[in-house]
Each structure stands twice: as structure tokens, then as C-alpha cells.
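Propose amino acids for all 128 sites.
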């Protein structure tokens, strides 16, 4: 079992930046696709960004393309999300999650339901 712990959330003004980090312990996650997802009050959980196990492929929600960047360091068991030009609509609890399925080096899960383990979440609040 992989345990995930997120950090780096907080309160920031619109246009500002934050960097979220996710540290994994327990089993290694270097064969798992990893993602950042978020859930705002009254809304469903959505995928923000996902990265393949080898880091060779990543995808983003349309709402964050060009502003957010996901990265991973398998040697350090960490996944990060760099968030720039933040907007009030980015306000949500952000979760780091992993998918144990393996379907090739470029495999990317496309639904929150495909993720098998989750961190506890970190709050990001963007003020206008």
C-alpha cells in the first residue's frame, strides 16, 4: 500500500502562484500513473493533471492548461504541481492520487474512479 501526503496549499491572491507537493511512502509508486485532482464545494471531484509513470506523458484539464505543470521524481517518490496565474475558480481541496493499473509507459487514467489510492488533500484558496 502506498501512502500519500500533500503539502503546499494555502491562501493566495488571484494571479499568484503555489507549488503543491506529494510525498509517497510504503510501496514504491514508480510504476504508477499519478495525478492531482480537486474538489470544490458543491462540485464533483475532477482531474486537474495526470502524469504517466515514467514522466513521458502528461495531460491537463482545459481550465488549467498553460498555467499548471505536473512533474514527478521517482527516485524521491514525489509528485508536484506548479500552479501559476491562479484564479478564484481554482479554489478547492487538491488531492494527490495514484493508479496501480499498468497499460504501457504512456498510460494515463482519464477518470477519478480509476485512481486506487489518495492523499488526505490540501486546501487551496484563491482570493479575488
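Proposal:
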Amino acid at each position: 500500500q502506498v501512502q500519500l501526503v500533500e503539502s503546499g496549499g494555502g491562501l493566495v491572491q488571484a494571479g499568484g502562484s503555489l507549488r503543491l507537493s506529494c510525498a509517497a511512502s510504503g510501496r514504491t509508486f514508480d510504476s504508477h500513473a499519478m495525478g492531482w485532482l480537486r474538489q470544490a464545494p458543491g462540485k464533483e471531484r475532477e482531474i486537474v493533471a495526470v502524469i504517466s509513470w515514467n514522466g513521458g506523458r502528461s495531460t491537463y484539464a482545459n481550465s488549467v492548461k498553460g498555467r499548471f505543470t505536473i512533474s514527478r521524481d521517482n527516485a524521491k517518490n514525489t509528485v508536484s504541481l506548479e500552479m501559476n496565474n491562479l484564479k478564484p475558480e481554482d479554489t478547492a481541496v487538491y488531492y494527490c492520487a495514484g493508479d496501480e493499473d499498468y497499460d504501457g509507459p504512456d498510460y494515463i487514467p482519464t477518470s477519478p474512479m480509476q485512481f486506487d489510492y489518495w492523499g488526505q488533500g490540501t486546501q487551496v484558496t484563491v482570493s479575488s
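The mean pLDDT is 95. The first strand starts at residue 2 and ends at 7.
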